[in-house]
Amino acid sequence: SRLQEEHRIVVSRFKKGQVIADAMCGIGPFAVPAAKKGCKVYANDLNPKSYEYLQLNVKKNRVENDVFCYNIDAREFIKRACNGSLSQSSSDETSGRNYPDHIVMNLPASALTFLDALQGAFTASAVNARPGKLPMVHCHCFTSKKDDKERRDDVIQRAETYLGGSLEPYEVNEVQVRNVRDVAPNKFMMCLHFRVPESIAYYSGKSNENKSNEKKRKAVDEDNVEPLKKCSKE
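The structure corresponding to this sequence follows.
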């Protein structure tokens, strides 16, 4: 199916040994294949039933040592992932390997609205402790725009509004918007990929621009393609 292919496409971007933070994981369609690939996965879902079946899925696929399950709010999960406070053992605290290389946000109806959790989420200690680059984000969403350029522009504009800053330069931040599937007439599922910009990751104050972005966020909420949902997936 299209969704199975989407799972494969996203997981293909992960490398063995990388750390994955799956903020809205459902029963683990990204988390379990990532673990089987040799990644260390922190998987979270707020829905208690999803969390229950996630644990069963992890056990059934024998990846209990590689998938660590959480049942908390996605925004809190993202912030904890970014500052390195998601850990399962004391070795995690010292190794720096609990800082994510990838953050997956697979709740298309509302995932974009959680991007504000990335703003200033990387602490000074995380800057020194985390190895390599800032993480890649893979965020699913909906748009009602008709052609590819309009869809790309719409998704990026909405993402930047919630992030409170720009994703430019797009090449440097590896920005890509993909068509995933047509959900209904005038409703298209997309996936936005980008590397968290330093200006957002280490942001430490509230400027006039960000106050303006709060107003824009409210406008985007009112105009959103789909009513916000906390637990369901398309």
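The chain has a mean pLDDT of 85.
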